[in-house]
């Protein structure tokens, strides 16, 4: 099934990570990678997900839905934007992606990925969310994380969404961090 221009597709599936994970690294760094806890975007089964794109192609035999062209996913305060997004889902008897009762297995996004939740933002070239393992990966020549004036730069962000553990890799270079002293909590 193929649907063209502009597509507004609303899922009430429990996938807030549908869009993707978590952003917000606290301070701390090493030369090759920085690890920390991430807060921010949380999994939420009680809020609808709104997806817009220029085109939607549903391939039920392959258990996937492909969104292309100006993809925008919103759930609560979490927003994901990308050039394309492929949603892979698990099928069970009678469950379909269009009815909203299919279980999402994983999501892959590409072509200038942008994630935001409140003051937290991340950009990269491509990304994936595995809802089975609860792992988010954002990759690119330059993966940029920011919260307010605090900026973290690397090439790959790995987030274990269920624990909030995060690691930013440098991929042969060095992780770069710019911390704003005004962002520290005052006692």
Automatic annotation (TrEMBL):
InterPro entries referenced in this protein's UniProt entry, alphabetically: LPS_export_LptA, OstA-like_N
Gene3D superfamilies: Lipopolysaccharide (LPS) transport protein A like domain
Domain of life, per lineage: Bacteria
Organic solvent tolerance-like N-terminal domain boundaries: 50-164
Residues of the signal peptide: 1-31
Keywords assigned: Signal
Record's protein name: Lipopolysaccharide export system protein LptA
Species the sequence originates in: Sinorhizobium kostiense
């Amino acid at each position: 099934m193929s649907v063209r221009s502009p597509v507004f597709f609303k899922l009430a599936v429990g996938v807030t990570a549908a869009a993707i994970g978590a952003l917000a690294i606290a301070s701390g760094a090493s030369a090759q990678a920085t690890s920390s806890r991430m807060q921010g975007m949380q999994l939420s089964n009680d809020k609808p997900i709104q997806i817009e794109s220029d085109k939607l192609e549903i391939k039920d035999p392959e258990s996937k839905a492909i969104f292309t062209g100006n993809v925008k996913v919103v759930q609560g305060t979490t927003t994901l934007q990308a050039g394309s997004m492929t949603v892979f889902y698990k099928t069970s008897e009678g469950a379909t992606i269009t009815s909203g009762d299919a279980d999402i297995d994983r999501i892959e996004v590409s072509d200038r990925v942008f994630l935001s939740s409140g003051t937290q933002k991340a950009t990269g070239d491509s990304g994936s969310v595995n809802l089975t393992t609860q792992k988010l990966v954002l990759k690119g020549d330059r993966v940029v994380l920011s919260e307010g004036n605090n900026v973290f730069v690397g090439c790959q962000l790995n987030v274990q969404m269920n624990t909030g553990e995060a690691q930013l890799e440098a991929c042969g270079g060095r992780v770069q961090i710019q911390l704003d002293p005004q962002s520290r909590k005052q006692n």
